[in-house]
Design a protein that fits this description.
Blueprint: E1 6-11, H1 16-31, E2 39-43, H2 48-53, E3 61-66, E4 69-74, H3 80-90
Parallel strand pairs: 1-2
Antiparallel strand pairs: 1-3, 3-4
Length: about 100
């Protein structure tokens, strides 16, 4: 689906909202053809410096960077419409 330059989900261990975000991203990825290898997962408990370097202060946080645009979504990704809108913007125009 999306030809995003990078997709990163920052999450906090096994917290409820993080578990929901992981599950939602996996489900949406499967339903919409997102390459699972294209997604990077960062557990802020395991990589706190990475989270600080990337200025992530709230989890779960999903960063999708493509072209000159970076979009952030926060929370458990239950608002799938917002995620799909970002992925559509990251998709190349059909030829």
């Amino acid at each position: 689906m999306a030809e995003a330059l990078s997709i990163t989900l920052y999450y906090a261990g096994r917290s409820l909202n993080s578990a929901r975000a992981l599950k939602q991203l996996e489900r949406i990825g499967l339903e919409h053809g997102l390459d699972p290898d294209a997604v990077e997962y960062v557990d802020v408990f395991d990589q706190p410096q990475r989270a600080l370097d990337d200025r992530v202060m709230l989890t779960p946080a999903l960063r999708i960077a493509f072209g000159d645009e970076t979009s952030w979504l926060f929370g458990d990704l239950s608002d799938t419409r917002a995620l799909l809108d970002v992925l559509k913007r990251a998709s190349p125009d059909p030829a």
